Amino acid sequence: MSDAEATAMEAAGAQLMAAVPSRTATRSDRFEPDDSTQTAHVLIPQASPEVHTLYPASDVDWVAVDITSTPRYVDVGAHYGTDVTGYAADGRFVASSSGGGATGDEGDFDSSRLVVGNGLLHQRFYLRVSASSPEGVAFYYGVQLE
User: Fold this and answer.
1) Can you tell me the distance from the alpha carbon of 146 to that of 131, in angstroms, rounded to the nearest whole number?
2) For the chain, does the N or the C end have fewer beta carbons within 10 angstroms?
3) Which CATH number does the domain housing residue 134 bear?
């Protein structure tokens, strides 16, 4: 990873950490239902992260990304552990990440960056987001497309 890529990833993680509440979630988010590829919310490139919830704790969310240029970076972050898995539209496994930790003013923060390359250009890409934390708590996470 180049210094520029590392700096960009660090900045994205800091932006996610600032946007995502550290408290536990008490209700579903406005993107529900998003429990399958058919109901996945389509993520658009924007300046600030979207904040979702994994509520209840067993919730699994799907987010769709239309790849119009490459490389695209999809950043996911939470104050609790997340498992993020990427799939092509045909269901092929593409990438996964269990995140990397960072520590901020509100404690530990788990952030992941998936890089989507040329092989998915002009296709829809899906992210499956679930809790990796054994605590069984519902929580907020942020997702952003660059």
Assistant:
1) 23
2) N
3) 2.60.120.380
Residue 20 CA to residue 35 CA, distance in Å, equals 21
Which pLDDT score, from 0 to 100, does residue 102 have? 43
Domain that holds residue 107: 3-145
Site of tokens 């496994």: 93
- Residues near 30 by beta carbon (within 8 Å), at least 6 away in sequence: none
Total domain count, the chain: 1
Question: CA 99, 27, 109 angle in degrees (round to 5)?
Answer: 20
Residue 135 is predicted with a pLDDT of 67
DSSP assignment of 66-110 equals: E-SSSSEEEEEEESS-EEEEEEETTS-EEEEE--EEEEETTEEEE
Angle at 19 between CA 95 and CA 76, to 5 degrees: 5
Residue 58 is given by DSSP the state T
pLDDT by 10-residue block (mean), the chain, 146 residues: 77 84 88 95 85 91 89 84 88 75 52 79 90 77 89
Quickly tell me which residue has 């240029």 as its tokens.
Answer: 69
pLDDT at position 31:
94
